[in-house]
Amino acid sequence: MELGDTDNRKNDVIHSGGSALLPAPAPPMSLQEKQDVTRKLAAAGATIQELNTVRRALSLLKGGGLAQCANPAQVVALILSDVIGDPLDLIASGPTVQSDSKPEEVWAIFDRYKLSDSLPSSVKEVLSKTRPHYGETKDHVLNVVIGSNTIALECASRKAVELGLRPVILSPGVCGDVRFVSQLYGLLSRFACSPEKDPPPELAAKILQLGPEVGVESWDLCRTMNVLVEEIKEGWGTTCLLAGGEPTVQLTGKGRGGRNQELALRVGLELSSSEGNNGAVFLSGGTDGQDGPTEAAGAVTDRELMEEATSQGLDIDGFLTNNDSFTFFSQLSEGRRLIMPGLTGTNVMDVHVMLLPPSPQTDLQ
Ligand SMILES: Nc1ncnc2c1ncn2[C@@H]1O[C@H](COP(=O)(O)OP(=O)(O)OP(=O)(O)O)[C@@H](O)[C@H]1O
Ligand SMILES: O=C(O)[C@H](O)CO
Predict the structure, then answer these.
(1) What ipTM does this complex have?
(2) In which domain, by residue range, is 104 found?
(3) Which residue has the CA at smallest separation from atom 17 of ligand 1?
């Protein structure tokens, strides 16, 4: 979070991690008490939406407080979004966006995670006060999203065209468990590499059934499948399927990994078990250059993965059970499938890329 002043104007860059970088617990709450509350919520599995709704209510600067402090100076907030849907009031808990979270909304979150009875009395005191507003008008604040997953996918799409690929953007809002997300990409690859001119309708039905589990709307799935069918019928070159978002992993093991590496590993299993000529290549990477507590940003897989692992005596299921995807990719072929760009200094969530080469019958046209 950088602040800069030019004459009577304050320029802020709002980005990932901003909530933690700009703590300002509302009195009488102490910083330690506020940290304990957010840690308990995160450990209980609260979503970023729930977490930041609570953070805004317990902070002097979040939820528009920073803009209020700057009033009447003109505030220009340049925002890098790391939250699906780019909600201005939730990115870094919206320090320049007036908060409307009501105490009852916050208590409902505490109740949901059974924390209401283990909170310090300061929480009750803060929530019993009405939040200050920064006046009747918000004319002195301009919030601009200058970086987001949508923008990243649009840039990737332009690069794909430069490389002679045919891009199609599925969605910037992919979420849900990596097991469902990997099934979606496996089904889409089978749909695109289908030997029939018209892919089997049951494949399309399964893809549409998965939509709600992975945060992708039916019309985005139908639009994408129509592009893939056109590719099959008209025999374009390789289609570059682009998507992004922030899937989740249910951690059951003690291994080292991240959601991007685990997703890539699971998609590799899907591709390896897919019959026919499934020449898809899949990449998942964190745009901040770090995936979980590892040096990698993600990994690349294809249908050769299973055979490659088996030939090197690596049991994929064992690594997955232990959430040990980083160790797996590090040991496989000297780590050649890992993506290691280093930290990028920005964060617009994860990007998924799947290259779908033309299926054999179109080569003969
Ligand atoms: N061994 C593991 N295997 C798979 N996923 C893991 C593992 N360890 C952690 N994770 C996942 O990685 C996530 C944390 O990823 P990361 O450290 O990249 O932060 P982040 O969620 O991207 O936050 P930020 O947006 O601030 O970078 C956790 O939500 C957890 O589900
Ligand atoms: O700082 C935060 O609140 C998260 O990174 C979401 O923006």
Answers:
(1) 0.94
(2) 2-147
(3) 292
